[in-house]
Every structure is written in structure tokens, then in C-alpha cells.
Design goal:
single chain; 208 residues; alpha+beta; eight-stranded antiparallel barrel; 8 strands; 30% helix; 33% strand; globular
Length: 208
């Protein structure tokens, strides 16, 4: 997660019949993504749910987001991958990035915990996170990025980087802080909490 610059983001969470086809499809469409203003695409695979994939696309400005959401781009990609249950697409911008522990360049990437949910007050959520940094750090959390949806100020996506699988499991099972943030995940249109590892990153040159 620490490799991502501040940006606008599109995120999708889905289960393609053949996850190995996701990365080639993205690289084959690098020019299309460049034309939409994308600068990075990141792919994560679930630890708990084999075949489940989280893809985030970082964009340079809002206008391409509107174009993407108004086009059939994602639907065409899902069709190409054989995805039958079309997932929702989260579109938002960085509300805050909290570096809990300074990154060690020699340390391997941590486990990613992602949740999309509705909160009463997104700014209050951010303030609460800053007040709980000591406990968050002691739980093995390295960094947290909070995105706020464009079309709903109460909808947020949180990406948390945690040291390892054991710490991630403990954080989700026993932390009152985590429970308070993510209680809406998996309800209604929101997917369940995603726990996975970083697999691929595509850097896209805007001059393609």
C-alpha cells in the first residue's frame, strides 16, 4: 500500500473464474488505461477466499472517473474474464493517509485489509484513528489509507497494511477499534472485508 501515491481511485472486488487472466488483461489494456488518466493499477489476491481479487486503479483527475463509470469498460472486462455477478465499483479520493510505522525498505509487503462501508462522519473517523495510533501500532498496523466516495460522503474505503496474517486475524477478531470502523462491511451492497496480499503493480506512462 505504501507504494501508492495520493490519488483518486476506482476499486473493484470480484471472483473471476480464472484469476490468472486478470493481470494479462490489465497489461493488454495499458493504453486504454493511460487514455483514462490512470497512473497505477494494483492487484491483490485474497488469503482467506481463493480466487477473490481486489483491483485498484489510481487516476489523475475526476473527469476520467466519470467517463469510466459512464462507459462499459468495466463490464467489458468482467465479461472477458467470465465474471457473472457484476460487482460494484468504488470511486473516491484520498481523505487521509496515516503512516503508523515508517516503512522499512528491506521489509516485505504486509497483509492488506480492505473494507468498504458507511460511516456517520468520515472526518470524525479520521480524527479517531489519529487518537488511537499507539494501539493501532501495537496491533501490527503499518499504514492506513482512507478514501471517501465521490457520490456519498458517508461511504469510505479503508486500506490497512498489517505486518502479517496472524496480526491481521487478531486485529479483525479482537480489536474494538477495527470493529467500530468496519461493522458495515459485508452488509447490503458492501463486500465482506478483504484480507490479501499485494501481487502486481502496473505503472502507466501518461504519454503512452
Amino acid at each position: 500500500m505504501s507504494k501508492q501515491p495520493d490519488h483518486l481511485v476506482l476499486a473493484t472486488d470480484y471472483r473471476p473464474p480464472d484469476p490468472a487472466r486478470v493481470w494479462p488483461l490489465l497489461t493488454d489494456n495499458a493504453e486504454v488505461l493511460a487514455g483514462l488518466g490512470a497512473h497505477h493499477v494494483l492487484v491483490y489476491s485474497s488469503i482467506e477466499d481463493p480466487g477473490r481479487i481486489l483491483v485498484t486503479v489510481g487516476l489523475r483527475n475526476r473527469e476520467p472517473v466519470r467517463k469510466v463509470l459512464g462507459s462499459r469498460l468495466f463490464f467489458d472486462w468482467f465479461d472477458a474474464l467470465g465474471v457473472e455477478d457484476i460487482p460494484a465499483v468504488f470511486a473516491g479520493e484520498t481523505l487521509d493517509k496515516i503512516v503508523v510505522v515508517d516503512a522499512d525498505p528491506d521489509q516485505p509487503p504486509g497483509v492488506i485489509v480492505a473494507a468498504i462501508t458507511s460511516v456517520g462522519d468520515a472526518q470524525a473517523l479520521v480524527g479517531g484513528l489519529h487518537r488511537e495510533l499507539h494501539e493501532i501500532a501495537s496491533a501490527g498496523v503499518r499504514a492506513i489509507r482512507i478514501f471517501q466516495a465521490f457520490d456519498d460522503q458517508h461511504e469510505v474505503m479503508m486500506l490497512q497494511e498489517i505486518d502479517n496474517e496472524a496480526d491481521a486475524a487478531e486485529w479483525l477478531a479482537n480489536s474494538d477499534i477495527a470493529a467500530a470502523w468496519m461493522k458495515g462491511a459485508g452488509i447490503g451492497a458492501y463486500p465482506p472485508v478483504f484480507v490479501g496480499r499485494f501481487r502486481h503493480m502496473l505503472r502507466i506512462d501518461e504519454n503512452r
